[in-house]
Every structure is written in structure tokens, then in C-alpha cells.
Amino acid sequence: MVKMNRYLITLFTLSIIAVVNHGELAEDIIRLPSEKLDFSDDDSIGTRWAILIAGSNGYENYRHQADVCHAYQILKTGGLKEEHIVVFMYDDIAYNRYNPRQGIIINSPEGVDVYHGVPKDYTGDDVNVDNFIAVLLGDKTKVKGGSGKVVDSGPNDRIFIYYSDHGGPGVLGMPTKPYLYANDLNEALKQKHASGTFKSLVFYLEACDSGSIFEGLLPQGLNIYATTAAGPNEDSWGTYCPGKYPRPPLEYDTCIGDLYSVAWMEDCDVHNLQTETIKQQYKLVKERTSNNHYYRGSHVMQYGDLPLSTDSLYLYIGTNPANENFTFNEENSLFQSPEAVNQRDADLLHFWHKYRKAPEGSDMKTEAQKRFMEAMSHRMHVDSSIQLIGKVLFGLEKGVEVINTVRSAGKPLVDDWTCLKTFVRTFETHCGSLSQYGMKHMRAIANLCNAGVTNDQMAAASSQACTTFPSNPWSSLSSGFTA
After folding, report:
1. What is the mean pLDDT of the segment spanning 444-450?
2. Max Cα separation, the chain?
């Protein structure tokens, strides 16, 4: 009987161990109810590292820095150490003269401050492509400015990257120039894998046309999983915008979040991420970001090593101890899909609301009207210039066809990335800056490369199409991709 009791006790203990250690988690076997969970980095699963980057500046782009600040709070609460979280943001929002709550940034209509405690690793002009890639590769010798913090990861470590910004086919914005091209990002990811300095990497990307950053470029076998806010040929959406439901507090005249971003972060805010997988979150975020399949939504995509999606989110971003007893239910995170605004139009919405709210005859009203008209003038110039270049090169009908061509799924945007970068420089030399709005035309320029156009032909067509261009800040060469 004694042997039987010992056998049952041993079997019971082993059963508990099997349940607790299901998957890759290796927590303490038994805890008393009064014991506090320790969600700091666990040596048995390696160190968690994170890079958070907002690729824009300007108060009209408030939402991107708000997204990144919110993400930082999730990671910090989840147990990641500050020295393992690298934050890139221009940091011109919290104390911006237009911010109605000085020193505070919010990411939801409830108005909880997400700015407090966020480290200022790379701000201002230190938010640039070279520093981002150096930080990712853990190369302290290549970092210029900022805190000098890099992802100094090892072979058993896991890395989480979250990037929120404007984008276009094959390109992501930066508050400084040049912008980040898809081939350069993917080459950096391949180099990071070749160095053997991580076990797995998860990349969340918020931007228009964000699928094009990985489509046909991110191979399997790198232990990298990426998910994007939109497909390779569609816009992403801002949310919590003035005049929309649910709207930000009345004193705000700018969008304070992005649809895809708040979907994954608000899900993290309420779930036990030890038991929720990346795949489960992907499905919830995909449903919410589609906005009930309404036209003001986008298709969330996934690329790379999809089997990594069965990992628990805890392995990359920790979890809030307060959510320990939360039972996962697929319906629990399906908050009502909010009204959304095209990311490319969010600045116009901001200028319009500033104009509408400003007193008649005031300098504020004049300034808002000027900025709105400058933005519209620039947009019309860029749109017409690209169309005209296509027609000069290929004729009236063929030009439209070439410009609007979309390659089949699985193929990268362009075959020759050097050609694309050269053509962008050529366009901006003759026609002024593409700017964040003009990113939408990167596919058209890539199509010219794919069609065999030479740079001499591109220069001649650009010169013919753009005898002049608007002299406002939106069109200035100092705002260009390559300046």
C-alpha cells in the first residue's frame, strides 16, 4: 500500500510538471496562492529583446509615437528589462505646442498616459536607417548618437520588433532621410540570422502597403515570423480620430492610434500572454483590422516561418501579472471595430479640424488653412507628375497600364532595387520630394524599372513632366527620400 501511495504521488507530481511545462515554458512547478509571479527574463527561455520604432515626426503623425509608447508599457509591464528594450521615436509630440496635455501621450479615448517612463534611446535625427540596422545587428561601432543601446543578443534569445509609420510599396518612412527600403531591411534580417545571435524573431509592422516589405523577400528558414497591417497593395488605417467613433477627447484634433496597432496592443492589455499564441492574436487582430470587411479596413498578412506562430506571446513580450487568471476566449478581444481614416489622409483630417476649431481671423486659422492647401498642392503635383512620366515613356494608354501594374503574389516589388533607388533620386531631382504621401507611387516607379526604362530615359521624362514644382515644405528636396 505504501508503494502504491508513493506511485500515485509520483504520478500526480509528474502530471503537474507535464501540464505546467507544456510548450516551451519552464516556470516553477507549484506556487502558493500568496506567492507573486516573477515575469522578469527567464534564463531557461533566453533573454527577451525588443526594438520599438516610430518612423515619423510632426504632430499630425501623433499616433505613431503613441503606438510605440503604448507598446513599451506592455513590454515593461510584461517583465522585459529596460536595458533590453530599444526605443526609436522623434520625441516631438509630448511637449508639442499643439498637444493639449503637455507631457502626456495617449493611445486610446480613455486617455491613459503611455509616455511616462519611456526611455529616450534614439530621438530626433538619431532615428535613422543606419542606427536602426546597427541596433538590430548589435553593432555598437556603427551607432551614432543616442544611448548607444543595441540588441546584444545570444543564440538562445528571442527578439520582438514593432515598427509603426507611413509606408509605401517597398519602403518604410523615417523622420530623417533616407527612408528604409525593403531589400535593405531583409538583408539586415538575414545578416542577423547568419550571426547566430537569436533563437527566433517576431516582427509586427504597421504601415500602408506593409505586406510589400516582406512579399517575395523574407525566406523561410531564418526563424523569423512577420505580420503586417496591410497587404502588399493596400493602405493601413488610423483610428481614434476627431469626428470619428470612438473619438479621442474633445481637445484632440489628430488621430491617436492606428487600427492594426491598437488591435494587437489592446488584446495584450487584457489577455494572459502565457496562454495566448501569436496565431491566436493574429486571428483576432486580422478580424478587427478588417473592420468587419468594411472598405475602411485592411488585410493583416503573415510572412516567413509561420510555424513560429504557435509560440506563446509570453516568449517575446512577457505578460501582465494582473491577467494571470484570464481564460482565453476568441470573442474577448473582438472589441467593436472603430471608425478608421486612411493613413495617407490623417494629416489632412488634422489640418481640417484645426482650421474648423480656430477662431475666425486668427493666426491659427490662417496657418491651418495654409498647411492644408500646401499638402493638397503637393499631392496633386506628385500624382499628376507620375502619371505624366508614364505617358511620356509609354504613350497615353500603355503608360497608365505600366504605372498601375501589380505583380503576382509571391514576387517582390522590383527586380533591381538599385534601379528603384536611382529612379527615386532622379524623380526628386526634377519633380521635388515624394514625401510620405508620395510613397504610394513607389510601385509605379518600380514598374518603370521592371519595364526596362533606363535612367537617362527616366531623367528626360521627369524633366519634361516637371518644368516646375510647388515651393512649399512638402515638395522641398530636404523632405525627399534621399536627401
Report:
1. 98
2. 98
Report how far apart the first and last C-alpha atoms of the chain are (Å, whole number): 83
| 319 and 409 in a common domain | no
Beta strand 224-228 with 301-304: parallel, antiparallel or unpaired?
Answer: antiparallel
The range of the structural domain enclosing residue 165 comes to: 43-343
Per the annotation, the verdict on 208 as an active-site residue is yes
Q: Which of 227, 192, 228, 419 is nearest to 305 (CA)?
A: 227
Q: Any idea what the CATH number is for the domain that residue 368 is in?
A: 1.10.132.130
Query: What CATH number has the domain bearing residue 173?
Result: 3.40.50.1460
The verdict on whether 381 is a catalytic residue reads: no
Q: Give the cell for residue 196.
A: 547566430
Residue 204 lies in a domain: yes
Task: Give the number of other Cβ atoms within 10 Å of residue 12's Cβ.
Answer: 10
164-177 pLDDT tens trace: 999 999 999 999 99
3-state SS of 216-275 is: CCCCCCCCEEEEECCCCCCCCEEECCCCCCCCCCCCCCCCCEEHHHHHHHHHHHHCCCCC
Which residue in the list 64, 69, 70, 208 is annotated as catalytic? 208
- The per-residue pLDDT of the chain, averaged, comes to 89
Give CA–CA dist 321/273, Å, rounded: 10
Among 166, 271, 350, 378, which one carries the catalytic annotation? Answer: 166
What dihedral angle (degrees, nearest 10) is formed by the CA atoms of 17, 20, 26, 32?
A: -90
